[in-house]
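User: These chains co-purify. Model them together.
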Amino acid sequence: MADPRPTNAGPGRLLVAVYAVFALAASARAGVQIATRLDEAPIAYLLSAFAAVMYIVATIALARSTSTSWRVALAACTVELVGVLVVGTLSLVWTDAFPDETVWSGYGRGYGFVPLVLPILGLLWLRSAAPVRR
Amino acid sequence: MIGLLATVLIVLALGYAAAAIVLTALGKAPREYYVITSAALTVLVLVQVLIAVVLLLTGQRPDELGTFVGYLIVALILLPVGTVWALAERSRWGTAVLAVACLALAVVVVRLQDLWSTAGG
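Assistant: Joint model of the two components:
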C-alpha cells in the first residue's frame, strides 16, 4: 500500500495548527478543572480531559503523516465526532449529569462550535489525503 | 500588567492576523521576513511577560495563579512555534497558519488581562 498523501501539507498544515491550539486550550482547561475542583463535576471534567487527549492525539497524528498515523488520526477524529454528538445531546436532555460545561456540551457551544466542526473537517481532509488503493 | 501594553499587543496581533488573512486570500505563501515581524511582536510579548513576573514576585496575585502562569507561557511560545510551522509550508496555507497563531495570541492576551483584573493591578 502506498503512503497516503501528506496530511500535514497544504490545507492540512492549517488543520494541524488549529488542532494544536485547540488541544492546548482543552487540555489546559481540563487540567485546571481536575486539579482544583474535580469533586464538583467529576463526569464533566474527566470527559473534558478525555476530549483533550483526543485532540492531542489527532494533532500529533495529522502532523506525523505516516500511513499508521493516518489511521490513528481517522480513529481520533471519529471518536471526537461521536463524542461531541453524543455528549452534546446528553448534555441537553440529561442536564443533571453535566452541572458544568465540558468541551463537548451543547455540541461545543462554549467554544464557538469548533469541537463540532473540527472533526468533520478532519475526516473530510483525511478522505482527500487517503492512501491510494488498487 | 500594563493595560496599555496589553492593548497594544492585542491590536498588533489582530492587525498581523488581518494582514495574514488578506495574504491567504490572495494566495500568498509566507515569506522569510515574517520571522522579523513575528520576532518583533514576540519581544513585546516578552516585555509583558517579564512585567507580569515582576508583579507576581512583588506579591500581586490573580485568583487563578496556575491558569495565569500557563497563559504567560503560551503567549510566549505561540508566535515562534506558529511562525516556524507556517514557514515550512510554501503555500497560502502557511500564511493561514500565521493568522491562526496571531488570533490565538490576541485571545490569550485578552484572557491574561481578564485574569489579572482579579489582582487589582
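The CA atoms of residues 23 and 90 of chain B lie 13 Å apart.
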